[in-house]
Structures are given as C-alpha cells and as structure tokens.
Write a structure and sequence with these properties.
- With 92 residues, the protein is α/β, with parallel strands linked by helices.
- The protein contains three helices and three strands.
Length: 92
C-alpha cells in the first residue's frame, strides 16, 4: 500500500518537518511505502491535485504547516480554495 504525506507550504524555500518526521517514524521497513509531496499555497488547486493523482497513493495525509491568520483567528485563503480546511475536519 502506498502512502503519500502531503504538505502545503507558504513558499518553496519552506519545508514541512512534520511529514519528514512521520516518514522517519514508520521505520526502515515501511519507509519505501511512504512518499512525500510538498506544494505551496501559490500553486493552483488543479496543479496540487494533479501532483497527488500522478503518484497514485492509496492513503493521503495532509499537513498544513504555515497559514496566514486574520485577527479573528480564521485562516486566510490566498489561493482561493474556499473552506477546504473546514471541510476536511480542520487540518488540511
């Protein structure tokens, strides 16, 4: 079974340590089944989905390490994805 740990970062120079830690935590035996994919909030939704689809994972984990928050504590939506975080249970 192929697992994909996906991160959506603010910039290409940023990296998401969570997905690297999760892959390291599965141990050497399972690491070949865990792939990483990092995108930025500046990429289109279609581009991100295409990048995920091309990898053909059976299980996808999303980590959103960096978000812009407004004064009400609500995540800004610079890429225009709508309330995607809210529709996925709060963690994108």
């Amino acid at each position: 079974m192929k697992f994909l740990l996906t991160a959506i970062n603010a910039k290409f120079i940023h990296s998401n340590p969570a997905i690297y830690s999760l892959r390291a935590g599965v141990g050497e035996k399972l690491q070949p089944y865990v792939e990483l994919a990092e995108f930025t909030i500046n990429e289109s939704l279609e581009s991100i989905l295409e990048g995920i689809w091309k990898r053909q994972p059976k299980v996808i984990g999303f980590s959103c390490y960096i978000w812009n928050w407004n004064s009400d504590g609500i995540a800004e939506d610079p890429a225009g994805y709508g309330d995607l975080a809210g529709r996925t249970g709060g963690d994108l």
